[in-house]
């Protein structure tokens, strides 16, 4: 790869259950103006400002008629390059980086926003299942995750306690993150006593919903990034991969797609031993078991060893590779925003600006985003300061 | 909109009827909606060129500056365009498919903002660009801060 | 970086109003099969996908997830783009960007729409609605173009009859295109007697609802030269959106087409577009739009395009070779339409368009995408480097 | 006329907008064949890839790895082994049954894939991965995946 892509600014809103006093454009406005303020970049017609906008948003979740088209002016879409990725925010970073690597743009503004409080998230995700078979029998993303969790925990003997630990860790870490929604000192017992949602997933083991919030960042070409800031964070590797859609067509216990996506990114970045080489990981775990399973896919441990990895404490704050110092999705993040926010959290870590959740001396980080039922589309982005 | 082609009967098809309610939080637009409830039409104003916009916008799309000033647009405006639709469309208040008898018009208000509305005059032939129109409101207790709080616009003599 | 890129293969389905014999996924596969055959490639040669449809008219959240396995691309990377009517345009732009990074050997660009399944999608305030305000009015693309045309007629002196002439010209072109959906053999009288939807828009003036898909394969220079001996080079592309800056009430004539064309012309050194571009495939969702678009792309003075039609100067092998395929009023699988334009433009450059081929040397062709209330994507193709 | 209008409150307003849709689903020639067999013959069919030889259920027109058209139909016994399950304990209007009920992925005998469907006639506490299952069909069938009412443990 000739030339690198730098991330020169990031911003996120506070993540809250229902932002009933805020219109979705206000969330977009807050984060985009924040990143523009950090960089001094503006929207200009003479070509000196921001070249392009890439948004990540789910239209069906925000209104019945393609609402992004009517909100784009907030992020300066008028008479400018403006595109929207209909995937998790991590894919918007992935595509934004490509706009720069293609030489087509020098600066790209990325924004992801979601107001889960607008409609019933389960209903919305049910519409994401194939319409002839799986949607007809009423499967949605929660029950798909239930099937995956049961398969995974049974195949590899993962215990409920090991899964619950992911929740306890997430909520504890979230206490250090002023933007996080749920931070409390739960115990493993509290988690295991909570109501069953979809066996073996308990209510506390699922991402809290609804959550509203937004995230934005600015990407720049190597030359431009160095001009804008003295603390750019570089994107060193990118990888994405699709898996089967039909839940019966893949072994749900092995996340092949994530393993492939991770290998693509690691190859580009020259990463050989991810557990040792990375200083911090921010991953998208909507359910407790996913932290364990995604750790395997990201090659932090071998297949079926996700439980052992969390038992070892290596992924705690202060461990060898802290996973989700921010609290991650289990502490409450909106879908779609989550992936971009994972990248943003990594950037804060690599710039040493993560406050109480800072991993001392972090130099290399990996961010992960996911979309689709039971992790069908995976995206991995590696970063370096 | 096309001429129908013959449909082969042997393929199985089925429908997913669905009704979704979107709970929109109006946020900064709330003042606009509260204005409608009081029978007043408000618009946001761009601090750079003074352009007023309905629906209110958080930033000016052209100058990228935050719009914080609100301007009362009055109750009257001049007709810009009118048309009648001859096919049924959904009503977002009731969720029902219905025919729309009243022409849909755009008016330029005294305050300079332009907005859509329905017209009391049923005959589009009698509508002339530049006509002075006045808002006719729903009774106050029925207003919800929605577009149809203004029942329709009626032409007024000058 | 900035690899030069070329389109090495194109494919589209025969567009129909109804396709009960295939699922949406199978419809996509049909276009992809033809595309691969055209390029002489196999699915294993493709390493990245960019795809999209107008999700609101699909009734799907992220339909790519379901379609992916049908295309035999499980395990590959990719993403879904979307922006209402310009979806196909942003999909194409994203595939150009992806190919130009040099990270991939071959990128598949795919867009589709199966409108026979989308009952009432537009009744919900589609195609012209800010999600809260204008969404409360019974607006649709039909009403948008009623207003646009009303304003155009008011300013130009063009009559209903002229618009009917435009429709007849479009039909004459479509009659020569075996892929087009509506091939009706129209006359001016027939058009004038058609059902009035919203004056002056008659049913025949609006784009039909179409089930169709279109695909193309984009490769960087080196690979393109290996794959085919007639690559069509992508000289430049630009997405240029309005982003809800103006509602129809505020300005019914708002459009970014002129601005976008001027940016592209300047970058490519085009001073006389009609002379330097020999084939045009421009997205006109209603027949009267073609009048305004001809003016906005720089072919003639404002509000004079109807005179060109009066003088019979527009059509295949005429002075203004505009939409030789018959255009959007003949075929409109919404999300896919801009890619259909691109495919048709590629065929014209290659000289492979068959009956509707423009005679003479075609060095450059321009294709566009349109959406919402004046959003545009420009794709400029070239025969030689 | 210009003022910041303090008499009009900024109290947050929430507006509900109702969106209707009634999407039609085409099952296509391949889906129709599969669903017709369910309806008319209470038979679950698989489809075989001419290139890799894998048998898929539910069917698609193209093999997901080879991208070749599949047309060879294979009769399956309908019996299978449970490879995963979950018990749904939350309620949504689109679900065909009242919770709690179980979904399972059933690895079909004679096929290379599993089918996601509901489980029935089984004590929810006694569901075990690896258990043998067979389909129970509805009395009145309409050509839908729901013509299989559920899968029950087979003896």
Characterize the structure shown:
The complex is a heterotetramer of chains A (385), B (158), C (385) and D (155). Chain A is of the alpha/beta class. Helix content of chain A is 35%, strand content 18%. Chain A has a 9-stranded mixed beta sheet, with helices on both faces. The two termini of chain A are 17 Å apart. Chain B has a 5-stranded antiparallel beta sheet with strand order 9-8-5-10-11, with no helix packed on it. Chain B has a 3-stranded antiparallel beta sheet with strand order 3-2-4. A two-stranded antiparallel sheet of chain B has the order 6-7. Chain B has one helix at residues 30-37, and strands at residues 13-25, 42-45, 52-53, 69-72, 76-83, 89-90, 97-98, 104-109, 114-118, 132-137, 150-155. Helices cover 5% and strands 37% of the residues of chain B. Chain B has 1 helix and 11 strands. With 385 residues, chain C is α/β, with parallel strands linked by helices. Chain C has a domain at 5-120 and 210-227: Peroxisomal Thiolase, Chain A, domain 1 (3-Layer(aba) Sandwich). Chain C has helices at 24-39, 55-58, 64-70, 87-100, 141-156, 160-175, 188-192, 221-227, 257-268, 273-276, 287-296, 305-310, 337-350, and strands spanning 5-12, 48-52, 77-80, 107-114, 196-198, 201-202, 211-220, 232-240, 279-281, 364-371, 375-382. In chain C, strand 10 (364-371) and strand 11 form a beta hairpin. In chain C, helix 4 (87-100) crosses helix 13 (337-350). Chain C is globular. Mean pLDDT of chain C is 90; it is low at 122-129. Chain D has one domain (28-153). In chain D, 9% of the residues lie in helices and 39% in strands. In chain D, the strands form 2 sheets. Chain D has a 5-stranded antiparallel beta sheet with strand order 7-6-5-8-9, with no helix packed on it. In chain D, a hairpin with a 6-residue loop joins strand 2 and strand 3 (55-56). Chain D is extended and about 75 Å long. At the A-C interface, helix 2, helix 3, strand 3, helix 4 and strand 8 of A face helix 3, strand 3, helix 4 and strand 8 of C. Strand 1 (13-25) of chain B pairs antiparallel with strand 1 (14-26) of chain D, so a sheet runs across the interface.
């Amino acid at each position: 790869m000739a030339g690198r892509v730098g991330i020169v600014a990031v911003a996120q809103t506070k993540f809250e259950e229902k932002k009933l006093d805020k219109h979705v454009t206000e969330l977009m406005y807050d984060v985009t103006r924040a990143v523009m303020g950090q960089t001094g970049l503006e929207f200009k017609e003479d070509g000196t400002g921001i070249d392009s906008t890439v948004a990540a948003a789910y239209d069906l979740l925000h209104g019945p008629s393609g609402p992004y088209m009517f909100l784009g002016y907030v992020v300066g879409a008028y008479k400018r390059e403006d595109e929207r990725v209909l995937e998790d925010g991590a894919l918007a970073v992935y595509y934004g980086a490509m706009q720069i690597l293609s030489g087509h743009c020098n600066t790209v503004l990325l924004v992801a926003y979601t107001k889960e409080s607008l409609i019933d998230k389960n209903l919305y995700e049910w519409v994401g299942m194939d319409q002839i078979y799986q949607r007809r029998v009423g499967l949605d993303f929660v029950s798909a995750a239930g099937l995956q969790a049961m398969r995974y925990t049974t195949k590899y003997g993962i215990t409920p306690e090991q899964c619950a630990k992911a929740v306890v860790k997430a909520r504890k870490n979230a206490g250090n993150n002023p933007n996080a929604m749920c931070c409390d000192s739960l115990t493993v017992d509290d988690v295991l006593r909570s109501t069953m949602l979809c066996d073996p997933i308990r209510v506390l083991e699922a991402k809290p919903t609804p959550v509203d919030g937004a995230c934005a960042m600015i990407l720049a070409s190597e030359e431009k990034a160095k001009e804008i800031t003295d603390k750019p964070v570089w994107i060193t590797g990118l990888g994405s991969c699709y898996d089967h859609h039909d839940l019966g067509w893949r072994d749900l216990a092995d996340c092949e797609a994530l393993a492939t996506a991770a290998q693509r990114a690691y190859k580009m970045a020259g990463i050989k031993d991810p557990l040792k080489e990375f200083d911090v990981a921010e991953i998208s775990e909507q359910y407790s078991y996913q932290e364990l399973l995604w750790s395997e896919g990201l090659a932090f441990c071998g297949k079926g060893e996700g439980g052992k990895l969390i038992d070892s404490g290596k992924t705690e704050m202060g461990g060898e590779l802290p996973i989700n110092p921010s609290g991650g999705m289990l502490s409450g993040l909106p879908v779609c925003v989550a992936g971009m926010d994972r990248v943003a959290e990594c950037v804060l870590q690599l710039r040493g600006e993560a406050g109480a959740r800072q991993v001392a001396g972090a130099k290399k980080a990996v961010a992960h985003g996911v979309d689709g039922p039971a992790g069908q589309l995976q995206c991995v982005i590696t970063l370096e300061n | 909109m096309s001429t129908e082609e013959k449909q082969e009967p042997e393929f199985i098809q089925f429908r997913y009827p669905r009704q979704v309610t979107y709970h929109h939080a109006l946020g900064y637009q709330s003042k606009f909606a509260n204005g409608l409830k009081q029978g007043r039409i408000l618009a946001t104003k761009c601090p750079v060129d003074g352009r007023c916009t309905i629906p209110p916008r958080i930033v000016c799309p052209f100058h990228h500056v935050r719009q914080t000033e609100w301007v009362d647009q009055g109750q009257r405006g001049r007709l810009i365009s009118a048309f009648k639709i001859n096919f049924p469309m959904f009503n977002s208040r009731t969720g029902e498919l219905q025919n729309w008898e009243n022409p849909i018009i755009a008016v330029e208000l005294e305050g300079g903002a332009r907005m859509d509305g329905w017209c009391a005059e049923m005959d589009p032939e009698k509508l002339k660009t530049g006509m002075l129109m006045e808002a006719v409101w729903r009774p106050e207790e029925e207003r919800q801060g929605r577009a149809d709080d203004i029942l329709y616009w009626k032409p007024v003599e000058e | 970086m900035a690899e030069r890129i070329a389109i090495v293969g194109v494919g589209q389905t025969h567009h129909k109003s109804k396709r009960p014999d295939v699922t949406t996924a199978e419809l996509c596969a049909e276009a992809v099969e033809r595309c691969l055959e055209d390029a002489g490639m196999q699915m294993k040669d493709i390493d990245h996908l960019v795809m999209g449809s107008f999700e609101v008219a699909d009734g799907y959240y992220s339909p790519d997830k379901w379609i992916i396995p049908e295309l035999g691309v499980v395990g590959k990377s990719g993403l879904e783009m979307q922006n209402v009517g310009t979806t196909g345009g942003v999909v194409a732009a994203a595939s150009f960007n992806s190919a130009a990074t040099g990270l991939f050997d071959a990128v598949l660009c795919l867009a589709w729409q199966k409108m026979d399944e989308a009952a009432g999608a537009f009744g919900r305030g589609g195609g012209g609605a800010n999600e809260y305000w204008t969404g409360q009015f019974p607006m649709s693309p039909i009403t948008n173009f009623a207003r646009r045309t009303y304003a155009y007629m008011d300013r130009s002196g063009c009559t209903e009859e002229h618009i009917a002439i435009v429709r007849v010209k479009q039909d004459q072109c479509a009659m020569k295109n075996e892929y087009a959906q509506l091939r009706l053999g129209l006359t001016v009288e027939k058009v004038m007697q058609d059902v009035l939807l919203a004056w002056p828009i008659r049913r025949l003036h609006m784009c039909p609802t179409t089930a169709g898909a279109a695909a193309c394969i984009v490769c960087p220079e080196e690979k393109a030269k290996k794959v085919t001996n007639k690559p069509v080079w992508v000289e430049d592309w630009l997405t240029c959106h309005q982003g809800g800056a103006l509602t129809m009430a505020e300005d019914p004539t708002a459009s970014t087409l002129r601005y976008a064309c001027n940016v592209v012309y300047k970058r490519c050194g085009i001073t006389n577009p009609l002379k330097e571009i020999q084939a045009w495939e421009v997205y006109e969702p209603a027949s009267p739009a073609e009048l305004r678009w001809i003016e906005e792309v720089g072919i003639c003075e404002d509000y004079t395009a109807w005179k060109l039609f009066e003088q019979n100067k527009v059509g295949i092998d005429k002075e203004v070779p505009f939409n030789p395929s018959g255009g959007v009023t003949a075929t409109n699988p919404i999300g896919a339409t801009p890619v259909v334009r691109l495919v048709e433009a590629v065929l014209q450059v290659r000289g492979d368009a068959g009956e509707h081929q423009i005679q003479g040397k075609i060095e450059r062709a321009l294709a566009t995408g349109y959406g919402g209330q004046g959003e545009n994507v420009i794709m400029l193709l070239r025969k030689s480097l | 006329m210009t003022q910041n209008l303090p008499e009009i409150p900024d109290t947050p307003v929430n507006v509900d907008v109702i969106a209707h849709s009634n999407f039609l689903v085409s099952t296509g020639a391949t889906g129709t064949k599969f669903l017709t067999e369910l309806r008319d013959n209470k038979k679950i069919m698989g489809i075989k890839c001419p290139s890799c030889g894998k048998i898929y259920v539910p069917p698609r027109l193209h093999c997901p790895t080879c991208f070749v058209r599949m047309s060879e139909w294979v009769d399956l016994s309908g019996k299978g082994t449970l490879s995963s399950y979950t018990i749904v304990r939350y309620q949504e209007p689109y679900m065909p049954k009242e919770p709690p009920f179980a979904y399972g992925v059933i690895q079909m005998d004679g096929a290379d894939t599993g089918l996601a469907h509901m489980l029935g006639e089984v004590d929810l506490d006694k569901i075990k991965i690896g258990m043998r299952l067979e389909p129970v069909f509805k009395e009145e069938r309409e050509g839908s995946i729901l013509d299989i009412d559920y899968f029950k443990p087979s003896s």
